[in-house]
Amino acid sequence: MGKIILTGDRPTGRLHVGHYVGSLKRRVELQNSGEYDKTFIMIADAQALTDNIENPEKIRQNIIEVALDYLSCGLDPAKSTLFIQSQISELCELTFYYMDLVTVSRLQRNPTVKAEIQMRNFEASIPVGFFTYPISQAADITAFKATTVPVGDDQLPMIEQTREIVRKFNAVYSDVLVEPEALLPQNQACMRLPGIDGKAKMSKSLGNCIYLADTADEVKKKIMSMYTDPTHLQVSDPGHLEGNTVFTYLDAFCKDEHFERYLPEYANLDELKEHYQRGGLGDVKVKKLLNNVMQEELEPIRNRRKEFEKDIPEIYNILKKGSDAAREVAAQTLSEVKSAMRINYFDDIELIKTQAAKYGE
Length: 361
Ligand code: TRP
Fold this sequence. Notes:
Blueprint: E1 4-9, H1 17-33, E2 38-43, H2 45-49, H3 56-73, E3 81-84, H4 90-98, H5 104-108, H6 111-119, H7 128-131, H8 133-143, E4 148-150, H9 156-172, E5 181-183, H10 188-191, H11 216-224, H12 245-253, H13 256-262, H14 269-278, H15 283-309, H16 312-340, H17 349-358
Parallel strand pairs: 1-2, 2-3, 4-5
Bound molecules: tryptophan.
The site of tryptophan has 13 residues, from β1 and α8.
């Protein structure tokens, strides 16, 4: 059995640097590592609709934004299959059958779904489709027999749910499905990058995101306005690192080599942190470093985006081809699933023969 990657994003907005360090960058590295037989990257529009039923146009408009973000980060349609979830109807069929393998109480225990229900004030009126999206996500993953799912830690409950469905299916029917593993970001700062205002999550509605598509000026402005340490009033005051957004971002983006280029008086981030904590290092200097580091990382992405933006019909073409290829793989898995579940009637010659024999033919 080869190693297969599947992952995806809901197209509810442009992708931001949190998506980038949390997953996108890693996907590109994995895609280029040569260690995986196949990489599937899915735009999860159907999942996005589960809590956006009244807002389909938002999802529709953001398909191209997410696709442009993918391509400009280096996901390459020659190496990865980029596709749109809703175009693969096999995923719905798989979801329908998996529903028989999951209990309501098991779904109610999913901590990510619980948090989302609270955030959206859904308590009294949870759409069934939203409530059951972990099952549909299990279909997304298993349809491609993915072994590896690169995601942030908020997605761990979905992977666990998927693994349970796989084990149950394989035990009840036969060994058709593959148990996937989550692949988490390597460092804590990348796990959940805070918003520029220091709030735990970057979110469009809070207006605290740095988008991959932001211009150099926009990025700089956002960095210069970042939340730091409110007790660090004068340069000479000792500064604190905890909850200090600028340092969290440096943890996510900065490497030793950046110091040679931008701040040679320090050898590495540890030395800079020490100085900050001792007092005598101003926020502006640290923010300027972060700006240099982030611009270096984001500029090539921005430039590639500009190129891809020149031929939008070609992007839709890439997604269509990817969806066609994905559908073939999902159809194969669905066919195996239906055989295992004994609901393949017409391609089972043995069944027809035995039934005929029973009637003495
Ligand atoms: N739940 C993921 C998110 O909110 C999107 C997603 C849907 C996904 N299906 C998936 C991620 C399958 C990994 C694998 O971003």
